[in-house]
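Tryptophanase, pasting as requested.
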Amino acid sequence: MPTYRTKVSERIRLPSRTEREEALETAGYNVFNVDADDVYIDLLTDSGTGAMSDEQWAALHRGDESYAGSSSFERLESAVRDVMGFPQVVPAHQGRGAENVLYGSLVDEGDVVLNNTHFDTTRAHVANQGARPVDCPVDGARDPTARGGQFDGNFSIDRAREIVDDVGTDAIPAVVLTITNNSAAGQPVSVSNTREVARFAAEIDATFVIDACRFAENAYFVSEREDEFDDATVAEIAREQLGYADALVMSGKKDGLVNVGGFVATDDDDLYQACKHRAILYEGFPTYGGMAGRDMEALAVGLREAVEAAYVADRVEQVRQFGERLADDGVPVYEPIGGHAVYIDAAAALPQIPADEFPGQALVCECYLEGGVRGVELGSFAFPDADRPELVRLAVPRRTYGPAHFDHVAETVRSVFEDHESVRGLRLASDPPIPELRHFTAELEPVPTTTPSTTSTE
Ligand code: F0G
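Structure tokens follow.
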């Protein structure tokens, strides 16, 4: 049952089919280029797109915008201490700002960083330090057809030991656990795996970092699936799981329930000092670090709300019900359903479209044309050189959409899926300079139904 009601409404509009066709063509068949006003249900991301509570809006007014010693920073610090258990906090403008502060302080050229699966910005920040990001997912984590286990987000210690055999322990300054594992369909990580990773990191003398973006959703899965925590609250589980880390890196735009903001938190004084000084260079003075005082207030309240049992149960169940409905309709989705999004296996949904014609992107475009629904491709268009499944992610903003919206999305996806043979592949029409980032800006065009003659006219 919902545990909130609507106090402020925002008008949304389903543009006509003709308007949608025009918008998509103008956007070069890339939904990142479509105006938000032309989108009806926006499932591009769950990051920074949720609704704040009345308590958070009220807290905004208390924002202390002092450059130094802001009391809003103190309230953020005490929320991080209470909810996550860490005494020292370096705020940043969002998650990737915090990643720059943390990995810039921890990682040197030639190093190797291990992670259950690096999220894109994490990978980029590690690489930016001249280091090598290496993923250690468990078997089946990226296989949408594995219909796998309860904790497919886990970190594979066996894989990590192979890397250690290869590069030695001195080359590995940090071991990272991303909870939930966004790049493995939002699957959770168990507390027992967290303990093993902590032991492993201690053994090789590496800093154990948790990317805690979706820590509350992860704790909810633990409460359901890990016997040891049958009687524990989500708040207790979160404290316990995060407590094994030496440092947290956080995007407040997810389980901080705010539209912008992030931080690094640690109980290691040397690391804190290093992060604090790097933050001054890249983010701001340590008592605001890239955030407005008012935003730190909203984040302080949001962190406490995120571990409230009623909130997080409603959140994860909404995503699950939506995903299971698609599965019941025969749409090939990654199961079990993850915490923040439903992932569709586009290669299975559109078998007639080969990988070099971007089946995921074709599916994203078709969902927009069919129902004004915006998702995101996470396959061969977004990751040109990686061996990834052709996934489309429908990410669910927090406290934003209700059952009628999900009925519409499910109907849209079902009707695209039923009529899948008419969907055409796409090809690149522009070539942005950085291939890893091409999916944000590249333009595409439908592959013609008949291939034009290639005879030379010279
Ligand atoms: N880590 C993870 C696991 C993330 O999912 C994200 C962002 C970040 C770090 C970076 O945080 O956006 O605040 O700079 N994920 C968003 C997404 C963008 O759509 O999944 P940020």
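Note for the archive: The chain has 16 helices and 14 strands.
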